Amino acid sequence: MKTIPLLAILFLSVGAQADTGKLLLTGGVSSIEGAAGGGLTPWAVIGSNATAGETGGSVYLTHVGTRDYGLNIYGAALGIHDRYELSIAQQDFNTRDTGVALGLPGLHLKQTIVGAKLRVLGDAVLDSDTLLPQVAVGVQYKKLGSTGLDGTLAALGAKRSGVDVYVSATKLFLGQSLLVNGTLRATKANQNGLLGYGATLGGNENRYTLQPEFSIAYLLSKNVAIGAEYRFMRNKLEGAGRAAGLGNGLRSEDWKDIFIAWAPSKNLSLTLAYVDLGVIVPATTGSRKQTGYYLSAQVAF
Amino acid sequence: MNKLLICLALAAGSLLSSAASLAQTAAPSDQLYKAFGEKPGLVALMDDFMVRLLADPRTGPHFQPSNQQRVKEQLVEQLCALSGGPCVYKGADMKSAHANLDIKKSDFHALVEVLQQSMDAKGIPFRKQNEMLALLAPMNRDIITPPESAAKP
């Protein structure tokens, strides 16, 4: 956790010298996996304020609090020439009472996500006379830290590392002040990887599945946007859980949110959202929907 | 993996083209022209714009050497025509007008920001600002100097 203030200071001092010129909010905010985008899903935009011929960076802190869980995230992204993006995110998922129920009080699931994104074509903002969106492809390597849950995950046939591949298309309909993003992700991750990747128990098929993700945002002013997101989640762990005699106790559901993002300056953006992550390990949480809040701050140059 | 990527790209593409009806940016009526206060409004806007362009360290050096009065007049004509007003833009096309200038994408973005400041100062509603910007933004292709590395297919 100590690394973040250091990174922030580093970036801020570089930022004071760098002269980067992207338009406000057009670098997106930092998603939970570190890639620039909305809150829950990556977009085709390249993070940071850097536009063509420039290099920039961003750091962020995010907290998500739901009825039974907490999730702290910090990370950073590097944007190069508005074409390449490298990102890293560290997720710390506090299992609270679920950990206790599993005989693992104080269980925190820690996932590291290293991402790369390449803008393939288009300019989401300036190509306002065509329907052509900005399109990017991305890859995310996810690694779950070792915990007391390792044995359970292994028994369910879930690995502790995985790779997601996605393509995103983002279009700002400037005349309408409306931004639309669609992302299609190939993944094996259970609950975004926090419960491992794949789930083979009971002969469960273990192939990649394609999960769509959508965002829509309306620009209220130059520096305020409101919007909503919907992220389809893979639900293969439920089958493995059933084979283990847990019924639908490991079911997962789609993630969604409504958000407001505010950029008080070129270098700072704050995002507040109401999230509904569906059920997460309903076996230990009374099948409660994991609704709650999402709060994120990003510093970018 | 290649096939997968192609499938992904196609799916995302079709998703966005289904939003096609949203992209009707061209406004055939003169509503936008009226929202900008017609000719007197555009003249006042461009007077303010030029003052800010010269004052901003990012854009000032680009406009200092220009014939500022002429640039303002041409901008008024251009915005008038674009927004559905009774004008015909008779100046040079954007490509040849900027051919000898070294203009980066960040310069173009800076200019948009300064224009937003001017439109704010003139009390033009944000939605109307974006309608105008949507008509102006595609000009970036003719205005921004292509990078040397642009010798790609």
Folded structure, characterized:
The complex is a heterodimer of chains A (301) and B (153). With 301 residues, chain A is mainly β. Chain A has a single domain (3-300), classed as monomeric porin ompg (Porin, Beta Barrel), CATH 2.40.160.40. Chain A contains 4 helices and 14 strands. Chain A has helices at 3-17, 96-101, 150-156, 237-243; strands at residues 29-30, 36-37, 55-66, 70-80, 84-94, 108-121, 134-144, 161-173, 178-187, 209-221, 224-231, 255-265, 268-276, 291-300. In chain A, the strands form 2 sheets. Chain A has a 12-stranded antiparallel barrel. A two-stranded antiparallel sheet of chain A has the order 1-2. In chain A, β4 (70-80) and β5 form a beta hairpin. The two termini of chain A are 21 Å apart. Chain B is mainly α and 153 residues long. Chain B has a single domain, classed as Orthogonal Bundle (Globin-like), CATH 1.10.490.10. In chain B, 61% of the residues lie in helices and 0% in strands. Chain B has 9 helices and no strands. In chain B, α3 packs across α5 and α3 (38-55) packs across α7 (105-121). The longest helix of chain B has 18 residues, at 38-55. The two termini of chain B are 24 Å apart. The relative contact order of chain B is 0.14. The model of chain B is unreliable at 15-27 and 149-153 (pLDDT under 50). Classes of the chains: A mainly beta (301), B mainly alpha (153). The interface between A and B is large, with 48 and 43 residues.
CATH-assigned homologous superfamily of chain A: monomeric porin ompg
Number of domains of chain A: 1
Q: Counting H and I runs of at least 4 residues, what is the number of helices of chain A?
A: 4
**Alpha-beta content class of chain A:** mainly beta
How far apart lie the N and C ends of chain B?
24 Å
Strand content of chain A: over 45%
Shape designation of chain B: globular
Oligomer: heterodimer
| Level-1 CATH class name of chain A | Mainly Beta
Order of helices and strands of chain B: HHHHHHHHH
Largest sheet of chain B: none
Counted by DSSP, the helix tally of chain B is 9
Greatest interface and its participating residue counts: A-B, 48 and 43 residues
Annotation, overall tally of beta strands of chain B: 0
Tell me the count of domains of chain B. Answer: 1
Q: What's the gyration radius of chain B in Å? A: 18 Å
> What's the average pLDDT of chain A?
92
Give the overall average pLDDT of chain B. 83
Show unreliable segments of chain A.
Answer: 1-18
CATH class of chain B: Mainly Alpha
